[in-house]
Amino acid sequence: MGDQTFRRHGAEGARAVSGTVARIHRDAYAERMVPGDLFSGQDAFMQRFDAYTVRPEFDMVIAYRDGEPVGQAWGWPLGRHSGDAWWLGLLEEPEPGFTREDGARTFALSEIMVGREWAGQGVGRALHDELLSARPEARAVLLVRPHNTTAYRAYTGWGWRKAGALRPNVPHAPDMDVLITPLPISPPPKLPPAVIMQKSA
Questions:
Q1: Which of 154, 165, 178, 180 is 20 to 30 A from 95 via CA?
Q2: Structural element, H or E, at residue 4
Q3: What average pLDDT is seen over the chain?
Q4: What is the pLDDT of residue 157?
Q5: Shortest CA distance to 105 belongs to which of 138, 58, 142?
Q6: What is the C-alpha to C-alpha distance for residues 129 and 27, in angstroms, rounded to an integer?
Q7: Which residues pair with 141 in a beta bridge?
Q8: CA–CA dist 15, 53 (Å, integer)
Q9: Residue 156 to residue 16: CA distance in whole angstroms
Q10: Segment 151-156 long-range contacts (CB within 8 Å, at least 24 positions apart)
Q11: pLDDT recorded at residue 186
């Protein structure tokens, strides 16, 4: 299986490895990309990545096997203004105050993806745990397409629950289900000595 390592990046460090980000995205979604897709295509994906990494609180983890990038996950905490934008397309508020954000309540898990060769080998769960185990917020939120049964099964198995539905405030975005999980999550399994962490800005 090879040695697995993680590298954590803030906004500046993430921008510096944008080529790796694009490579992982191509590898993860090549078979599902449709030419001219205005939401899921690589150009649109990297435009969103550039917009996300303007946020100084952006947090990303990349997984490597034997030095090769195999997956990535990222997100950011929702502040008052970014929270307003995130929740703008919520179809119905589950409970009073559900969308109230202050920068410490909610971490938005925006992306998690694994290269096709490494799918089904625990990389996605390892990325999920590595990213979220370091977060100080009270809960995490993510969006998933309702018919993406593979992802849905994984998330619910990891402790996420559906809280509503939302159309993201992004051009050409599809309707999504809103999933929530409390933080902190359980600590990830203890890694063997060969697994190390590296961190950049």
A1: 154
A2: strand 4-9
A3: 88
A4: 94
A5: 138
A6: 22
A7: 108, 180
A8: 7
A9: 33
A10: 152/177, 154/124, 154/125, 155/179
A11: 67
